[in-house]
Amino acid sequence: MQLRYNVRVYPTPGQQEALARAFGCARVVFNDGLRARQAAREQGLAYICDGDLSKLVITAAKRTPEREWLGEVSAVVLQQALADLNTAYRNFFSSITGKRKGRKVAPPRFRSRKDNRQAIRFTANARFKVLDNGRLRLPKIGDLSVRWSRALPADPTSVTIVKDAAGRYFASFVVTTTGGPLPEVDAEVGIDLGLTHFAVLSDGRKVAAPKFLRRAARKLKRLQQDLSRKQRGSSNRRKAVVKVAKAHAQVADTRRDWQHKLSTRIIRDNQAVYVEDLCVVGLGRTRLAKSVHDAGWASFVGMLEYKAARYGRTFARIDRFAPTSQTCSACGRIDGPKPLNVRLWACPCGAIHDRDVGHQYSRGGTRRETKRLWSAGKTGTRAGAAP
Questions:
Q1: What is the dihedral of CA 345, 347, 351, 352, to 10 degrees?
Q2: Which of 4, 39, 192, 232 is deepest in the core (most CB within 10 A)?
Q3: Could you give the CA distance from residue 335 to residue 351 in angstroms, rounded to a whole number?
Q4: What is the β-pairing status of strands 344-346 and 351-354?
Q5: Is 17 annotated in the active site?
Q6: Out of 122-126, 170-174, 286-290, which region has the weakest mean confidence (pLDDT)?
Q7: Do the Cβ atoms of 370 and 361 come closer than 8 Å?
Q8: What is the distance between the terminal CA atoms of the chain, rounded to a whole angstrom?
Q9: DSSP state of 56
Q10: Among this protein's residues, is 369 annotated catalytic?
Q11: Catalytic-labelled residue, pool 42, 68, 276, 335
């Protein structure tokens, strides 16, 4: 399977200028290709194929005075920018014809030099190389200083250099590797994602929601207020924009690190993992949108899925319309819809269920235990739960 390893790189001022030049050339080639296809469509001409488009906006353009500076960067960077445009068109065509599942994909649009994120890609044809001293050698850019957190398991097939909104540079390596399976265990777990508790596990454990964005709200508010007071186009405003971007990047990095640790622990301790397929897009349109996006359910489920495939675990998504909160695990009876404030319910067969945990409890339990379970069941409301 293919894995992506991201590491921080520290280019020198001269290398930053070379990277900015490469970002700009890749953006121009992408926009020229998009403009050529749009013009052909407006004139009623045939769709320009990938090979002809490459000759038009790269090979022929380098011979013109207006685009001769495209030869100052690696040709692979330009070809990969055009490959991104071709992929965007294929996804758009597959979406409108129904071959691509999920939400509809919009047609490609022009890239702007003011975009917060800039990226270029080098493939094996560019002959990039990780040197013995740990530096990354890129054609027409130089040897970049890299801060390695771990060694790559195999030779990378491509590397993407990314500059984010905070002005940081990253190298993203694509590596093809076969992850060895972990030792088999007997445990299985079902995960119920929510807002009051980030995750409620079927074994009774509840993981508190960290709420990284909420905790950083006061700092972000102050930085946003400082930004709004700066004059547009001034250097102070550009500095304030970078400060806001760094604060948001810190929140995202902290959330990603926490989710990686939690997902790794769950995959290591369980042979099979089951997660409800929540409609995050729909929940993002409700009044709980900020909390839903702060939770980061989609990225967490994605981590569980690829780590399960890598380490030989079983991963499955439960249909979001399945009446899991209404079905008795003891007798299979569907008890019917319930309001969200009912967190504990009793089945006529004698079992008492916590709709978050999914456990069943005998009616013969002590009064204190039942009261404790009832109080635990009322601690919060799970967003997106089946009624």
A1: 0
A2: 192
A3: 12
A4: antiparallel
A5: no
A6: 286-290
A7: yes
A8: 39
A9: I
A10: no
A11: 276
Angle subtended by helix axes 297-310 and 235-269, to nearest 10:
50
- In 3D space, the residue among 317, 318, 349, 346 whose CA is nearest the CA of residue 332 turns out to be 349
Three-class DSSP category at 114 = coil
3-state secondary structure of 107: coil
- Please report the beta strands in the chain, taking only residues with DSSP state E, as ranges in sequence order: 2-10, 118-123, 129-130, 136-138, 142-147, 158-163, 169-176, 188-193, 197-201, 206-208, 272-276, 314-318, 344-346, 351-354, 360-362
Q: Pick from 211, 239, 204, 234: which is nearest to 223 by CA?
A: 239
Name the strands in the sheet holding 129-130, side by side, starting at the edge strand that comes first in the sequence.
118-123, 158-163, 169-176, 2-10, 142-147, 136-138, 129-130
Cβ atoms 120, 26 nearer than 8 A: yes
Q: Which of 27, 221, 239 is nearest to 117 (CA)?
A: 27
Name the catalytic one among 66, 269, 356, 369.
356
pLDDT tens per residue, range 241-274: 999 999 999 999 999 999 999 999 999 999 999 9
367-384 pLDDT, tens digit per residue, is 333 333 333 333 333 333
What sign does the dihedral 110-113-117-123 (CA atoms) show?
positive
List the one residue out of 68, 243, 65, 272 whose CA is nearest residue 182.
272
What's the pLDDT score for residue 284?
81
Active-site entry in 192, 294, 305, 354: 192
DSSP, collapsed to helix, strand or coil, labels residue 280 as helix
Contacts of 185 (CB under 8 A, 6+ apart): 269, 270, 271
DSSP state of 126: G
